[in-house]
Amino acid sequence: MSTERAEAIVVGAGIAGAATAFHLAKRGLGPVLGVEARTPAAGATGRAAGIVSEQLWDRWDVEVVRESKVEYAALAARAAPGAYRVNGFLRWTAVERAAAALRPRVEELRAWGVDVSLIPPDRLADLLPAVRTDDLLEVAYAPGDAVVAPSDLAEAYLAEGRRLGVDWRLGLTAGRVVRRGSRWAWEGGGASFEAPSVVIAAGAWSKRLLAEAGHPLPLTPYRTQAATLVPSEAVPGSTPSFDDLDTGIYARPEEQGRFLAGDGTEDVETDPERFPPGGDPEFVAHVAESLGERLPAWADAHLARAWAGVCVSTPDRRPFIGPVPGAEGLHVITGFNGFGVMRAGGAAARLAELLADRGSRARERLRSVEPGRFPGEVRPFPPRDGFTLQAGDAPEY
Ligand SMILES: Cc1cc2nc3c(=O)[nH]c(=O)nc-3n(C[C@H](O)[C@H](O)[C@H](O)COP(=O)(O)OP(=O)(O)OC[C@H]3O[C@@H](n4cnc5c(N)ncnc54)[C@H](O)[C@@H]3O)c2cc1C
User: Fold this and answer.
1) Is the pTM of this model over 0.90?
2) CA 287 to CA 290: how far, in whole Å?
3) Are 150 and 309 in contact (CB under 8 A)?
4) What pLDDT digit, counting tens, does each position of 318-362 carry?
5) Is the CATH code 3.30.9.10 the one for domain 89-143+221-313?
6) How many whole angstroms from 272 Cα to the centroid of ligand 1?
């Protein structure tokens, strides 16, 4: 088996890997080789809802979403028309405990420069006429939030990366990453590639790849579901996305007057090679029941399709981005805890800065997500929701 050589290898053509390869090439690091076991966006990226929101619980995430927004808007304008659309994002509750959690979060977000405010519940009818507002206590609204088409963005990153010289190899078998002397190699299905730097951007598969490379990190893949529904009255594309704090349901407008709805995290580990890819009847029933109560005008919506994807959780619900401890040249960008589409562009730009410059500014910009923050034995842990209102290990909302 002959071995091809590169300066950096990126493993995985989900949105994180596609963006990382693009940014590495943009910074002049090369040759960059991308390897994808399946097809672009074949993992979580191709199954994501595509909500992009700065209503988050960590300041680093807010900054990275903001950087991603700027990049996605420009990328869509250049290469993927319609793949980025500003429609705003709402969070609401009719429960006092959740309202008490929402108020200080909005204050903190505003202090971080996020354009979000509490609006009178009856104003919601102007933004989302389908919603029943009579019992709502608080509504938070961020008009600058957006929706994206995640697969289109990944494809656009791939295309722009190729133009900058990235050599993407697609449809390979699921190979593995191994150490070869002072270099790293990706090998599988008769192919072999070697480089001083490898970036594992393999989503839920990263856990296995890192363990096989001899450098495991605490990661738990888990399943999460979404559905597209068709209401009798078309939902305008300008309708804000929302997260109902009381039911755990989120939704966004889709093409052709449809909307996409999902709920949170299944709290058991899932093997990304063996998971039920369709939506469960219980999930579909939960979505229908929850929406029917809060949005009676959508209660007659029929199901177009429902599906599941596999995301990956970390013990503190923060991603792993940067050098893998004790493994010179091995890097990772994963552990997005279910909201990686909205952060991939900014996160990849920061990682590429680190690989290209190795300076203290680049290290500082990834400090809070460095993969070495859980030294010692890797222990199993249950996945938890990532896209929450509250910070901490076990947020109620
Ligand atoms: C139902 C659902 C809804 C979601 N909604 C949102 C949302 O609204 N907003 C948001 O921000 N996020 C959302 N997410 C989360 C988001 O999809 C992920 O965080 C993000 O797509 C992760 O991207 P990734 O590139 O890290 O991983 P992936 O997209 O999973 O890509 C990993 C890639 O690596 C490849 N690979 C695996 N093993 C190998 C190997 N050995 N060699 C080569 N290639 C390999 C895979 O084939 C795959 O293409 C949602 C996810 C789901 C499932």
Assistant:
1) yes
2) 5
3) no
4) 999 999 999 999 999 999 999 999 999 999 999 999 999 888 999
5) yes
6) 10
> Residues of CATH 3.30.9.10 domain(s) within the chain?
89-143+221-313
Convert the pLDDT of each residue in 61-114 to its tens digit. Answer: 999 999 999 999 999 999 999 999 999 999 999 999 999 999 999 999 999 999
Residues contacting ligand 1 via CB (< 6 Å) = 11-17, 35-38, 42-45, 47-51, 174-175, 201-205, 209, 224-226, 262, 309, 311, 334, 336, 338-342, 344
82: left (phi over 0), alpha (psi -120 to 50) or beta: left
What phi and psi values does residue 320 have, to the nearest 5 degrees? -110, 110
pLDDT grade, residue 264 (50/70/90)?
Answer: confident
Q: Is 151 exposed, middle or buried (0-12, 13-18, 19+ CB in 10 A)?
A: buried
Angle among Cα 220, 216, 207 to the nearest 5 degrees reads 40
Conformational region of residue 338, where left means phi above 0, alpha means psi within -120 to 50, and beta covers everything else: left
Closest Cα to atom 41, ligand 1: which residue? 174
For 12-35, what is the mean pLDDT? 97
Question: Which superfamily does CATH assign the domain made up of 4-46+150-219+315-373 to?
Answer: FAD/NAD(P)-binding domain (3.50.50.60)
Strands of the sheet with 197-200, listed across from one edge: 167-169, 32-35, 8-11, 197-200, 330-334, 320-323
Tokens of 232: 């009798």
Q: Summarize the confidence of residues 168-172 as an average pLDDT.
A: 95
CA distance from start to end of the chain: 52
**Rounded Cα–Cα distance for residues 220 and 222 (Å):** 6
Helix or strand run (H / E) with residue 146: strand 146-148
Q: What is the pLDDT of residues 121-162, one digit of tens each?
A: 999 999 999 999 999 999 999 999 999 999 999 999 999 999
